Amino acid sequence: MKNLSQLPAVPLITHDPYFSVWSCGLTPTSDETRHWTGAEKTFQGGVTIDGEPMRWLSRTGRRPMALKAIDVTPLRTRYVMEEKGVRLTVTFTSPLLLDDLDVLSTPITYVQFAVEFLDGKKHTVKVTLTGRENLVYSGEAAPRLRQDFFDDGVLQYAYIGQMQQKPLSGSGDHYTQDWGHLFFATDDGELDDMPGSSYIMQRYVKESDKPFETTLLVGYDDTASINYFGRLLPAYYARNGKTIIEALREFHARQDEILSRCDKFDKKLLADARKVGGKDYAKVVTAAYRLSIAAHKLVADEDGELLFISKENDSNGCAATVDVSYPSVPLYLLYCPELVRAMCRPVMRFAKMPIWHYDFAPHDVGRYPMLLGQVYASKRRSKQHSESYTVAPLYLYPATVDAYNFERQMPVEESANMLLMLAAAGYADGDYTMAADDLDMLRTWCGYLLKYGEDPGEQLCTDDFAGHLARNVNLSAKAVMGIAAFAQILDALGEKKEAAKYWKKARETGKSWLARAVAKDGHSYLTFDGVGWSQKYNLVWDKLFCWDILPETFYEKELESYLPRINEYGLPLDSRAVYTKSDWSMWVAAMAEDKDVFAAMVKPMAKFLAESPSRVPFSDFYDTVTGCYERFIARSVQGGVFMPLLMKKWRGEL
Predict the structure, then answer these.
(1) Tens of pLDDT along 52-69?
(2) How far apart are CA 92 and CA 108, in angstroms?
(3) How many degrees, rounded to 5, is the angle at CA 346 between CA 306 and CA 294?
(4) How many other β-carbons are positioned within 10 Å of the β-carbon of residue 257?
(5) For 356, what's the count of Cα atoms within 13 Å in the CB-facing half-sphere?
(6) Is residue 497 located within the same domain as residue 459?
(7) Average model confidence (pLDDT) for the chain?
(8) Domain residues for 331?
(9) Pair 538, 462: CB distance under 8 Å
């Protein structure tokens, strides 16, 4: 069967790492709806035409309607089905508007239904959408649940949730929502619990003998979203006490306005993407947009400061991971640079706590949704060092505690990442306040790069799944970029004399890197031992900021060297294996001045999206020969595929 969506999985409801529902079959009726983890989170869609029952969503029930089209844009998924002279169009819109953080952070999706009569005859049509009880708990065993229905004179409401609520009571990589309530709200049709069914579920029903258009609001009230160093924080929209009922009423009242803004945003983004890289690149950014944002939770700390907390989906579940934020930032630099600082803010806070007594940046700040201190490389300190529920409150530990294994840290990696993210956010909107407030810490991290970055010893980098690697040429390139980023921060803060010193060091280290990293034919090595090759994605900042640390001739030859190495579904990450990383490949593509070179990088990725046999949300780590995903599903790093758009925008070409 042809893949009409041209995607390996289709987003339906996408708001945060928990409220995330996808259609993973080739059609909406060939599989149950699922969380990105693969766990069934069941929405079932039914339709009855002139007494004959059919289904439009999920594999359960009577025969499916004939699918005519699937249209996916950055903010919207639309299904078009036809049967017995009737056309049913269902549109899911998750309004993740990066210029409106209250709307962005409100976990409500619009589900619009439109019924048309194509044959000129009269029909009676009933459309339903049912939410099953597995949407409100994690695991297979159903706890005791509560359900109720009410109205306020404007909207009808239905909700379902566990009787015993334990907000923020667990964490883990494939852990799904285990507290809070699923809500339906509408001003049209009926809400019921599907009378006669033994299952606990809530159903929306709209029946008419005339063509109609109607909307159902689907929301989730998680009550508490993040444990931030002992404080339980709600979603950003609820920071001042707004309830989910108030939010549902607001989204209902503002429906036309919000959906119009979504439509306008979709058209502009897709037009820009096609201008940069044609239909293939437009497909890639469509696949990445909702996915990247929904791998975060937006909250505010006790001072009202933004925190944009990522979760390492299908990786290890870490929260606010520096080397996950780093590849994601192009999307947020394009539309809301403050969200980049909101990624950095928890890291900066933890780095000043007694337990973090190191001269380099942390890797993470906890395991989602518990931000209690870095868990990566933490030592097992007791018999109760469990990984399955919550994590130790490491933020409370004194400096005398030896909490981490140094050999599993990423010191050059994370220090350079933090410097680059803060420099980029400041460059994007001119606000370097956050960097100024912690300039001494950034100076320390840059000092680490100066001492160890020119020829790194055996340590991990962002691509830690590949293991330790000594003398990593790409990691050294990141160190050079990190030093330059600190020089840029100092320049912007008016520290011209000190900035000149770091600019000089960045250029000297860059010159040394070029002399040691490049073979006679012009391509760069994997390691300074003169073996292998790798994608030099970290050098994109030199081009993006126009630093001119390396000559243009180097970039031309480097990019040319990649072309014969491209496989069916993309360019491998390096010479050690045939897998790739989609985010890094788009960083490399962004450096291409030649449109044909850019197209050669993008086309295989679009082909992967259309042909991958792995029915999972856009994996960033996959096999370039088979198209099968290796690991990593629905991760925030896919914001990195927006790097070509960012490059064009900052050059004034969009």
Answers:
(1) 999 999 998 799 999 999
(2) 11
(3) 60
(4) 10
(5) 26
(6) yes
(7) 95
(8) 266-650
(9) no
